[in-house]
Amino acid sequence: MEPFLTLTIERELQLHEGYQKTCKNFNGMLPTLPRGKGWWFDQLLQYNCFWLSSYSLRGCLLINDHFKPRPTDIIVSTSPKCGMTWLTALVFAIINRNSYDFTNHPLHKANSQDLALCLDG
């Protein structure tokens, strides 16, 4: 087996085990959290002073345990249907303002979604 493939498989196994551990912790804490009735979801859980659905809480725990941002990462967030495409293009243009000539800028030929990584929540 090639070394890169071996490292990839080992990393995938570590991630899978880490996700399982996070989900096990989530299932253990679930009965201990305060509950409330939501208007969108039938039931909300209070965690760190926030009311979340169980689905959102599981996602937050996975992010807290496994997302490792780099010092150069830029995270931009908007509400749904509030201009994420425009905002992504603006951030891309600002970051790369010295890298491309105006006449040959990548935004003339491609959508901003194709030029920047996106985390969907």
TrEMBL record:
Keywords: Transferase. Residues 71-108 form the Sulfotransferase domain. This is Sulfotransferase. The keyword Transferase applies. GO terms for molecular function: sulfotransferase activity. It comes from Gossypium gossypioides (Mexican cotton). Pfam families: Sulfotransfer_1. The keyword Glycoprotein does not apply. PANTHER family: SULFOTRANSFERASE SULT. It is an enzyme of class 2 (transferase). Transmembrane segments: none annotated. InterPro entries: P-loop_NTPase, Sulfotransferase_dom.
